[in-house]
Amino acid sequence: MKNPNPFLKKIISRKNTAKILNDMSARLNIRILITDAGDNIIADIGRDGEFGNSSNSMVIYPINAGGDEQIGFVKGNEGCSLVASIIDCVAEIESDKRDLTSELLSKYREINLFYDFAENINIRKDFNDMAMLTSTQISELLNADSILIILKNENTGLLEVVFKFGADAAKYAPLKPEDAIIPERVILSGRAEIVNDLSTDVELARILPRRTGSVLCAPLRIQNRVTGAIYLIKENPIAYTSENLKLLMVFSSQVAAFIENGKLLQNLQETFISTVYTLAETIEMRDNYTGDHTRRVMDYSLAIGGNLGISGEELETLKLSSILHDIGKIGISDSVLLKPGKLTDEEFEIIKSHTLLGEKILKNIKQLNHIIPGVKYHHERYDGKGYPEGLGGGDIDLMAKIIAVADTFDAMTTDRPYRKGLSYDAAFSELKKCSGTQFDPAIVDAFIEAFPDIKEK
Amino acid sequence: MKNPNPFLKKIISRKNTAKILNDMSARLNIRILITDAGDNIIADIGRDGEFGNSSNSMVIYPINAGGDEQIGFVKGNEGCSLVASIIDCVAEIESDKRDLTSELLSKYREINLFYDFAENINIRKDFNDMAMLTSTQISELLNADSILIILKNENTGLLEVVFKFGADAAKYAPLKPEDAIIPERVILSGRAEIVNDLSTDVELARILPRRTGSVLCAPLRIQNRVTGAIYLIKENPIAYTSENLKLLMVFSSQVAAFIENGKLLQNLQETFISTVYTLAETIEMRDNYTGDHTRRVMDYSLAIGGNLGISGEELETLKLSSILHDIGKIGISDSVLLKPGKLTDEEFEIIKSHTLLGEKILKNIKQLNHIIPGVKYHHERYDGKGYPEGLGGGDIDLMAKIIAVADTFDAMTTDRPYRKGLSYDAAFSELKKCSGTQFDPAIVDAFIEAFPDIKEK
């Protein structure tokens, strides 16, 4: 025997309901037996009253609580019809109340998830971190099997899955033609879609007639541009509502903003680096380098930095200071900078001034003041015999020590109009020979360790 | 006489309630008179039944609907107690249901505002636009008189009102010491605050003992940094709840992210412009300018552009191309660029190549390809006698025509080591003389119109 219907039990045992039933029973002198649909007795009131005797046989009144289904019965004599009406009436309102409570709880849950989501999405710096938070929340709220974040590649026009979530999501990346149909449509129209039975989708059915399941798909939109979509897949069909779709759209709007902001920053960052790089390279061209010196010094420096465990903002500093290490040469006159023969002492002093000129130029750019040490001190020597200040060993800025090795190695190994460059092996020997005098031994070691990676580039 | 209580009326006229009352009246042979608290008759059932005759005087039963207040009365004989119990029971559940419905409606409203807010905040590019949307929503949801967005100035440490909303908000900007107390505390602790009676705030009471009203204040936080606060003021005290504060925190989190993203972009943009500017200015320094040539050419160009109604992205293009107009000079050798006397034809050809060298350099920076025309053609003449291509009139890029006027004017008016610059008036005459031959007349006119603004700088 199952447990008695808790809803019916709750109604009957309400303090005021119980009082009404007792009063009715007493006043009408009737026995009232209430059972649920499973014949469990919920109440049995007024055992002394009339109850189904021969002259007045037992009547059974169903309790419907306003719905179609019978949730229980009132059994007794004919007088019980009134009792049944009362219970029915109370049960109907209570049933409405129960529905409202459950809806309210679900809305509270939705609001709380919003609160959490809105507060947390903005502390994410990283796309994957943000995408994981979003997908976890969506999946919890909308009971999804797979969630894909899809972007349209601006160059190829193809849809690319940039993030996937869920145990089965792997099978959707890369997107197969049939899986791309709905996101394609959403991106094209800019309108979100619910498909609760994939087999009814005309376009999809043409390609894959037996596909089942339900999907929600919302565009990633910034202002009037649609750049991609969030695609939510439920393998076994489920009845998604427009409320569900609206919820997904809130998430998609936040994801779109996150992606867009990242793109804007990245684009500006790239513009900045590539402008600075091009100008630096143009300046180096005056110095008889045949091109790509800046690129190689940067690559070597970053490889050394990576080997030494430098990361994040420090690596950015290393990148910029290696690109701009010779910026001061812009102020050295051709007659000195381009002199083919041996320099006089005075001329050498002028050449040496490019380190201080670099500092002077960069001092004008407050946001780049942090790269000055790398630029200013890249001609210092480990033994203290370098310039401009003759600093030794540990007093020299790490970035400068790295750039010194990278710069010297590239200067040795590249061809100039007036001489051929050394082989890598010969240049390595030279670096090792100068390790501990010109160069910091730790940097030389790091360079040699990192070099196999460099050669592969 | 007032209208009958609609809630009581609704309960009594429910189909099943009405049926119960009729059945009761018939079965118990009683008259049932139901009135609301204002003595309006809601129902009068069974006029044939007993009712307050001498042997069985009328009894009055209050209807409380589970609350303390009496919402109506059942009047009749003693048998009516049961009727009153039933109505009371139904009214109590209906009253719960009414409360739930109203709470649910308010949650739906909150969710819908979230939806709208989350979808709309991200399409705002402009801080004021975003702040207005946010404040309108907050004000509607939380019934605020004033809303302030406050940022802590990174240099001075002072709190600054960067946006205000509401009819009375003007009196809070700039912030007076007493108005800064709560935001200061919130920014310092990073914890949001509710103060429902300002006169109870110990710190505030010390400064301003008679201040009344209620406030909510939420920090603007990104990761672990608090950069400011949203401050909501209600002049007449109101009972704000922790739910209200939570809601404000969702908005504050979105506003903080918006501000932070803007700052990141702006900072990078400033780094970019100031780096490019410094490098360009360094290159100009070789050309015997004594400094600030780049700044002045940029200022003049932007003034002309502004006068011509150029704005937005085009103005950005003008700014960058005016800064970088002579970038190609980096490739011209000192012997030609710095020659004090008259140039040979061959040397002049070399000088002219700086326009094409500029194009060549900028071609390497795909994000700056849009500024090439301004750089390449800034030595074309309106009459077609310029270089590098001898383009005429309308064929010349607008940016280039603007830079030509700005550059020539600055070249004429600044001192060089070997000659003194012209006065502004003499240079104006020169510009006018060359209007229609060397320069586009429309640009010369725009420059002369804009010049009063320039002189004020």
Task: Jot down its keywords.
5-stranded antiparallel β-sheet; GAF-like_dom_sf (chains A, B); Beta-Lactamase; 15 helices; 4-stranded antiparallel β-sheet; homodimer; HD/PDEase_dom (chains A, B); 457 residues; 9 strands; HD_GYP_dom (chains A, B); alpha+beta; Hypothetical protein af1432; HD domain-containing protein (chains A, B)
3D structure, described in words:
The structure is a homodimer of 457-residue chains. The longest helix of chain A has 45 residues, at 242-286. Chain A is built from 15 helices and nine strands. In chain A, helix 8 (293-307) packs across helix 15 (441-455). The first copy, chain A, is of the alpha+beta class and 457 residues long. Chain A folds into three domains: 6-100, Beta-Lactamase (2-Layer Sandwich), CATH 3.30.450; 126-258, GAF domain (Beta-Lactamase, 2-Layer Sandwich), CATH 3.30.450.40; 287-455, Hypothetical protein af1432 (Orthogonal Bundle), CATH 1.10.3210.10. In chain A, a hairpin with a 2-residue loop joins strand 8 and strand 9. Chain A has helices spanning 6-12, 15-28, 80-121, 127-142, 177-189, 202-207, 242-286, 293-307, 312-323, 334-337, 345-363, 372-376, 398-413, 424-433, 441-455; strands at 32-36, 41-45, 59-63, 72-76, 146-152, 159-165, 193-195, 214-222, 225-234. Chain A starts with 5 loop residues before the first helix and ends with a helix. At the A-B interface, helix 2, helix 3 and helix 7 of A face helix 2, helix 3 and helix 7 of B. Chains A, B: This is HD domain-containing protein.
